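Action item from last week, closing it out:
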Amino acid sequence: MTYALAFTLHLLAVVIWVGGMFFAHFMLRPSAIEKLEPPQRLSLWVAVFGRFFFWVWIAVITILLSGYWMIYDAFGGLMGFKVHYIQTMHIIGLIMSAIYAYIFFVPYQQLKIAVANKEFPTGGALMNKIRLLVTTNLILGLITIMVASGGKYINI
């Protein structure tokens, strides 16, 4: 894999993940609140997450693999790079990946069970937890994009 291919895959995966969170938070969520009752909303979110999280797994794996490929290709590995903006992206990316894994394996799994059992108050509380975690990841993702696009120019 060349550096250019790794960079392209990395960027596409970031667009899918961060763009998906932005769409869900600022377009889908308000529309669902406006048009659907809570039980329908929770069922919608379980279905949306089922599709979106499949792509997020692909994006996270792609981001990590392509990111490490670029680090090894351009800097000779983790010990060889001292570019602060890349270190910042690396740390934030690992934090985002950990938050996503937690979302997927804990509250999302519990949400699916709560909705299947028609325990909508429990589902609502879980959905709120997921929303807060996704909002955190969205903010971190947007910060990472700013660091990636401007870091080498402002010496982050």
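Closing note: The helical segments are 3-35, 38-75, 84-105, 107-116, 120-154.
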